[in-house]
Amino acid sequence: MELTYLRTFREVAKWGSYTRAAEVLGYAQSSITTQIQKLEESYGAVLVERFGRSMKLTLAGEALLQYANDIYRLHEESKEVVSRQSRGILSIGTIETLAAFFLPPHLQTYRQHFPDINVMIQPGNEPFIIEAVKEGALDVGIILDPPFADPELHCSILREEELVIIASPAHKFAGTKEVLIEDLEKESLILTEEGCTYRAMLLRTLKSKHIHYSLSYEFGNLEAIKQCVMYGLGIALLPRIVVAEDIEKGRVVAVPLVHPDFKFYTQIIYSKKKWQSKAFHGFLEVLGASNYQNE
């Protein structure tokens, strides 16, 4: 059986579309159809079936996908061992906060040591990132969470991230040294989008303490949140690294939120099955991922 067919099968499974798989692989759609048919003939089972406009894997297809992922992983390992070169793609899943305010200097250092590695950043929320790392769709994930553990993953804490309440300089919190969860009573909140871990922690804590608040705005964009805070439209909970420059220039004030549950850490996760190439291990070293592991 040709590795090409398995590659095509993985792309169809990923995109749920023969057309999209053809675009990604640079094939005619008829070629995709033919390769999947030959794969099904080889296994004697239907692997893909149509539901509406998308293609879905059958139970047989789901079973084959696990093997296809392992075969491709081993194939990539063998190529690097044989060639002894550090080339290819390093795929990283992370949230907007860390992509914008944590990763860039580390990526600069990594590029100096591994100029031939193409780094692909995939944005997403923590549940998406964790699942994608488990499935092998991403090489590593960098998340912002309380200490995380999973039996399938290596989990390393990189550093603690301070969470702060940000407000306009005219807000009553300006000049205070700390904010307690009770101080948020009747405040207007500007929140990040659903799937954000510190948003979920904030709402869960407010609910448990029976604290009333107004939900003014929700954004998936950090800059939009900061701008609304600057205009006095509400307050927001964000990591300090996001607003460091705004604090320095006096555009917002930032006050630590004091609560025992609000301990969040930047962490790197990767599969325990992941083969650590020279380039992959180099990325871990750049981030200092060997300092602490919670397995």
Question: Could you explain how this protein is built, in words?
Answer:
- The protein is built from eleven helices and 13 strands.
- β1 and β2 form a beta hairpin.
- It has three domains: 3-82, Winged helix-like DNA-binding domain superfamily/Winged helix DNA-binding domain (Arc Repressor Mutant, subunit A), CATH 1.10.10; 87-160 and 264-287, D-Maltodextrin-Binding Protein, domain 2, CATH 3.40.190; 161-258, Periplasmic binding protein-like II (D-Maltodextrin-Binding Protein, domain 2), CATH 3.40.190.
- α1 crosses α3 (29-43).
- The two termini are 37 Å apart.
- With 295 residues, it is of the alpha/beta class.
- Helices cover 43% and strands 25% of the residues.
- A five-stranded mixed β-sheet has the order 4-3-5-13-6, sandwiched between helices.
- Belongs to the LysR transcriptional regulatory family.
- GO terms for molecular function: DNA binding.
State mean pLDDT (0 to 100 scale): 90
The number of domains: 3
Q: How big is the Rg?
A: 23 Å
In CATH, the architecture of the largest domain is 3-Layer(aba) Sandwich
Q: Could you please say which CATH topology of the largest domain applies here?
A: D-Maltodextrin-Binding Protein, domain 2
Sheet with the most strands: spatial strand order: 4-3-5-13-6
Largest sheet: number of strands, sense, barrel closure: 5 strands, mixed
**DSSP strand content:** 15-25%
List the secondary-structure elements in sequence, H or E.
HHHEEHEHHEHEEEEEHEHEHEEH
Strands, count: 13
Which segments are poorly predicted (pLDDT under 50) over 5 or more consecutive residues?
A: 291-295
Shape verdict: elongated
Helix content: 40-55%
Number of helices: 11
CATH homologous superfamily caption of the largest domain = Periplasmic binding protein-like II
CATH class of the largest domain: Alpha Beta
